[in-house]
């Protein structure tokens, strides 16, 4: 028998406090009926004796202390799921908002997820092809990995997310089942419409499950959104055998909502006002990525987070970097040069890349190409710094070659617009770029590798460098 409690002790922001409640569980779902018969929902977030704090998903606007009827439902927040969630759009709490009716679920799962036994985890292998050369070649996304994108206000992270959704796939294995769970948190209405419009125009909506939490929605719903998205991903991966790519944008908006909610509970703040449990809260989300023994599917995460004031030491990117396996960093200077996507490859890193590339997964020359591209582009930055001091005209012939290589690398490799490239095309482009450098500068390659992959004539033709103006002649006899 379930009891219905009448009246409240107090209301604070999105929280209501009820006194005299017995046999109530933490995270238990609550049904709240107002005096006008409007029904709202919430969950228990704190219990102190018989005093219970409840967060209200729809907010507390219009609530009064009297004539409010509260019923505890005896179970945590759950979501009914089936394969029919593909192609559907939900709000942040997992309710359909696309006008196509409810989901007739086969199974109901707890939104908080279940802990994965570390022993049952499978080490991430094989890669997910995003179609973006700088990611696929230099910071490869591995199936079952969590690889965040660090961005800033005004950069083109939304456009990059759209391109990944449009073109991502499981390598060349067409028979593999692949889908995307896309969760937008705290975005503007026009941005939410942009996402859905782009997915529909690209005809990829049938493989996307979309969760929308716009800026005007309650913050409590924003806290639920990534949990609903990840629960959906886990169902598709572990019950329907899909390889699922989860894109969460923007995790900074989620953390801001968590900070506001923590403040309403009068909790002691931590660094920059965020709650002291921010690390464990983010861990609960990020660690839901992975692969499990005996299951065919996988969950891979790309959380996108904006760095306030471009500060990579801000608590949100800082803690995210500790939990995840690398990062993809977007650069404002590249964006101002018109490069899309503006990925800064030197601070970007994929720690699991080495285990998901090579002969069995991508191509046997992938690792040596990536190593040499990193080394050569790092040298470009040194030469550019030197040119700021002595001027480009005073550089040696080899240094001028690096300046040209840097411009070609950014114009042709990093800047690809909305074009999608298969992994083989990206690798071939990388070799053609390296062919513009003198062979004695390719110090990460063996002589056999240079003979096999370096083709200066092909590179000159690709980048439209005339024979009579060979790069050695242009940039100095010392080359």
UniProtKB/TrEMBL annotation:
Classification via SUPFAM superfamilies: P-loop containing nucleoside triphosphate hydrolases
Residue ranges of every copy of the ATP synthase A/B type C-terminal domain listed in the record: 355-453
Keywords: ATP synthesis, Hydrogen ion transport, Ion transport, Transport
Domain ATPase F1/V1/A1 complex alpha/beta subunit nucleotide-binding: 131-350
Top-rank lineage group of the source organism: Bacteria
Domain ATPase F1/V1/A1 complex alpha/beta subunit N-terminal stretches: 10-64
A Pfam family it matches: ATP-synt_VA_C
This protein's name: V-type ATP synthase beta chain
Gene source species: Acholeplasma oculi
